[in-house]
Amino acid sequence: MKKTLIFGLSSMLALGSLSGVMVPTADASENSSYEATKSFTSVELTKVSLEESSKLISEVAPYVHKNDQGFLYVDSSIPNDTYIKYDVAQLEKSFEEINAKVENGIVTVNDDLSITPTFQTFAKKNFTSEYFWWGERGTYTNKQAIDATKSVNKAAIDVGFIGALTAWIPGFAGVTGVTSAYLFKLGSDMESKNKGKGFIIDVTWTLTYTIESR
């Protein structure tokens, strides 16, 4: 079942389509080489099934391309209802920022539309990150999963710890307005999906997330 939490967000620096939900931290300047501007007035944060997430990506994927300069773009032939339903306008905003990084030689868009930093100048994360046109994936060992879950639950109780989550959760960079309710739900989902081998978290440009056991 789809479960939704809604909260207000203000303008912030984030990771473009690769970004999630978090208060800016002191590491923002370090992250800026691979982060982009993403602005919201309000947003739904939704936990979706793997099938729903796959559908969201698969319905937009045919219209996402890389041009000869290595820039991402959305084909103008995308149906209007698909464009609106999946908030493709926000995806295009993130592409603008990613493309600026491509132009400056900071990232490379690969033929499979995954995104690779050309050098490591952003803050280190406590999980293995992979970046794609649709968002960010975090892969966790069992220990990383346990520590990440503790950090999320701690931040849910005391918002003073929210900033630290940029190192623990994929896409959680540069966004304001996260709620304790969302963090409690996220922590619960993370704990339930760790069967002793860690898990994988995907966060899309719509800020939906999926968690899969390893």
Keywords:
two-stranded antiparallel ribbon, 6 helices, 214 residues, six-stranded antiparallel β-sheet, alpha+beta, disordered N terminus
Architecture overview:
- With 214 residues, the protein is of the alpha+beta class.
- It has one domain (3-213).
- 31% of the residues lie in helices and 24% in strands.
- It has 6 helices and 12 strands.
- It has a 6-stranded antiparallel sheet, sandwiched between helices. It has a two-stranded antiparallel ribbon with strand order 1-4. The chain has a two-stranded antiparallel ribbon with strand order 2-3.
- Helix 5 (142-157) packs antiparallel against helix 6 (180-193).
- It is globular and about 45 Å long.
- The relative contact order is 0.23.
- The model is unreliable at 1-45 (pLDDT under 50).
The gist of it:
With 214 residues, this protein is an alpha+beta fold. Helices cover 31% and strands 24% of the residues. The strands form four sheets. It has a six-stranded antiparallel β-sheet with strand order 7-8-9-10-11-12, sandwiched between helices.
Write the layout of secondary structure elements.
Elements: E1 3-8, E2 12-14, H1 28-31, E3 36-38, E4 42-47, H2 50-60, E5 64-66, E6 72-74, H3 80-85, H4 88-103, E7 107-109, E8 114-117, E9 128-132, E10 135-139, H5 142-157, H6 180-193, E11 199-204, E12 209-213
Antiparallel strand pairs: 1-4, 2-3, 5-6, 7-8, 8-9, 9-10, 10-11, 11-12
Low-confidence parts lasting 5 or more residues at pLDDT below 50?
1-45
List the secondary-structure elements in sequence, H or E: EEHEEHEEHHEEEEHHEE
Please outline the major beta sheet.
6 strands, antiparallel
Helix fraction bin = 25-40%
